[in-house]
Amino acid sequence: MLKRMSIMLAALLLFVAALAGYTVIRIRATIAKYAHFALPPAAVTSSVAQAQTWQPVLSVVGSMRAVNGVLVSTDLAGIVSQIAFESGSELKKGELLVKLDTRTEEAQLHSAQARRELAAISLQRQKNLIDKKVASQSDYDAAESEFRQADAAVEEAQATISRKTITAPFDGLAGIRQVDLGQYLNVGATIAPLQSIDPIYVEFSLPQQNIGEVTTGKAVHVRADGIPGHEFAGVVTAIDSKVDETTRNITVQATIQNPGHQLRPGMYVNVDVLLPAESGVVAIPATAINYAPYGDSVFIVKDATEPGPDGKRGKEVVEQFVKLGASQGDQVTVLSGVKPGDEVVTSGVFKLRSHAAVMINNSVKPGDDLNPNPPDT
What topology does CATH give the domain 58-67+196-274? Predict the structure, then answer.
């Protein structure tokens, strides 16, 4: 019985040894078969880095504000007797807007003018008597005082009539009229908004680290949603004297020419502040950058160090860490790591590694425009 079991155990061990040997042979054969296997080249696009003149900009969001803007309102209460403007009309300084009923004030003016005329006659009479030395100085002083009071009453009536005649305080564009003919208006009632919008101000905030880059006279470009394909030019005209303690931003004001009145107060706009142009800047498409926590990098295309399976030398990439600068549109500047003339991969960087074989196919390339204008979708 023991002899039989020993034979069975030996047979089992022999079978296991044979199976292990066969597996080792198969593994070695597979390793030898794929020892020279190479991944096919990755299809990528590329672009040659070039030195160019770069126009850096500071892009922010701003708000439009009228050079002069008020809600024209009444100074005195009264009934509207005349409306001399239309909603949305362009007005000149001093042009009549609304006139309130002034019949009572005009009657008071006529009465005051009559009293002044009588006081003037009395004053002249007293002056003649003084010259003849038949009247006292006190009588002349009383007559002069009465004339001055009558003259002041006339000016007061005229001022009241003037205050009930509302005119445009400056050249501007009228808004929607808020009053109707015959309506009774209380003191301070709104007649219409009036905005002076050519030129017009745009106000925006910049971080305190950009204060040294922006000075009065710097050119700005303004673009607004709803006005596609149109860019408005202007210059920085004022910089606030204080930095906001909460945001550490400073407010900047620029003046924009607005002859067509397309820009309106209260609109949000995109503002580009043009900084001094820099020459010799190396810029590449932003899609070429492989962003990573340990550092940004690009893949530079070079001739392969080893021939491929077909015996020909193709292209491979080498990863290069870079230091980035400002960006504009589809491009970003490279401060170090890329030289003019280097060919960099512009798409497919996520699937690459150093010395990976690549095949350049630039039939369809990603955007590379400083001022992209993508179509509406």
Answer: Elongation Factor Tu (Ef-tu); domain 3 (2.40.30)
